Amino acid sequence: MNNQLRYANKGLGTLVLSLLVFVFSCKKGEKLPNAAPETALSIEAINLTGENRLNSTVNLTWFGTDIDGFVQYYEYKINNGEWTRTQTQDSTFLFRIDPDQDSTDIDFYVRAVDNEDTKDPSPAFLRVPLKNTPPIVTFEEASLPSDTTHLVITFRYTASDPDGSETLKQGFLRANNGDWQEIDLNQKLVSIMPSNTTLTGTGDASVYYGLSTTPAMTINGFLNGGDNVIQLKVTDIANAESAIDSADSIYVKPQIGDLLVVGGHNASISAQYENLVKTSYTNADFVNFAGNGGLNQPKFWEPTFSLMAGNYDKIFFHSDEANFSNPLTGADGKMLDFAAPVIQTLIDNNKKILVSTAFATGADLSTIGGILSIDSFSPSRGQAFFTNDSLAISQDATYPDLQPSNFLLAADPFYPSIDAEVFYNAQLTPSGGWTGPSTVAIRRRNTSNDVNLVLFTVELHKLGKLQVNQNQVISKILNEAFNW
What we know:
By secondary structure, the protein is mainly beta. It has helices at 12-25, 267-280, 301-309, 335-348, 467-481, and strands at residues 38-41, 57-65, 71-78, 84-86, 90-94, 103-114, 124-131, 136-139, 148-150, 153-160, 168-175, 181-183, 189-194, 201-209, 217-224, 226-228, 230-236, 245-246, 250-253, 259-264, 284-288, 314-319, 323-325, 332-334, 352-356, 374-376, 383-385, 392-394, 415-416, 421-426, 429-431, 439-445, 451-456.
């Protein structure tokens, strides 16, 4: 077949002249027969070849005329298919290219139907030359972790096709030289974590979609305790395959212990906490989310931190009152605010949580207060000093008292929620007319009367004047209170 548009329209003038001749040849009073409508496409031909052919998404327009009535609707068909009725005079068509074919020609027909249901006997015709364009898939670079991560790799990606997103067919994922595994193209947030987080070497990894903590599939070839290159590719309905996109190599740290120590301090203070924990507990892993100016924190606290922390029985979260910006979203907040929803989930799942933190004056408790059993701070003016000759006195006789290493200008005593028990009260010195509570630490128990939350609002590393006592408190919490 040629590429010329075959118009049924012989020219409106010719049609009118023919009708006039017919009218005058009829006898007076004789009813004229209905004239068929005429149909035309807005373009006569698409003279494109080779690489200049159209992609599979094409917009076509048409119109019709009827000299003795009106066009009621239109019908179109593609190749040898069935006629399809439409009231419109244009449409965007997604033409299918047969699998494994690079190009094809589509025969498109359209005809008008008039008010007496007479159809144009010579439909308008257009041959549409098509060429398939391979789809595209790319990692969202900003969403990827830095060159090192603990257990979990989370990322977003985009997939598209110049022929239209509807032509995308399948997506595939692999780790290193593992097998390609099909993924759900509707899921654009993906996390990968070794199926056995404590087993180092090459093995399987679980793949999670969105915020789910239930794996959707498993891939092989993942290296726990080594460098991983994650790759993506997609195919379209013509089985054309995209170029493979590869993320930069990411080192994945394996799980060593059953305690995860999460740092929200600078490197030197985080090192103090690491030494404190190692003195009393040998089975711990350490991550410092405040490192590198806060760029080490998860870009997706959920699901990244949820998946990571869910592998541990105990979590020790230490931070100060500083605000951080999320490296992906730019959202500002206290690191505990970002972690709060995850901490609540961990507590709900019978994990044991130790938190050491500080709060700025006028801190907003709407996010974290209920989770940590803080009812409120004193509304009083002035400050509460905690001098280094005063004590934080334990309300549990089995725990020793604590003492600040240095003079603390502003402590953070608080009123506990009714579901908490006072753990430590501080001997505070009021200044500037301050009045308020003396509680600086609480414990909370689950329905089985097991301690599942301990909170200090005076940071534990500052309570080290009696170092033996400091070590004993941390040891008793991690090894005794959390030993259930």
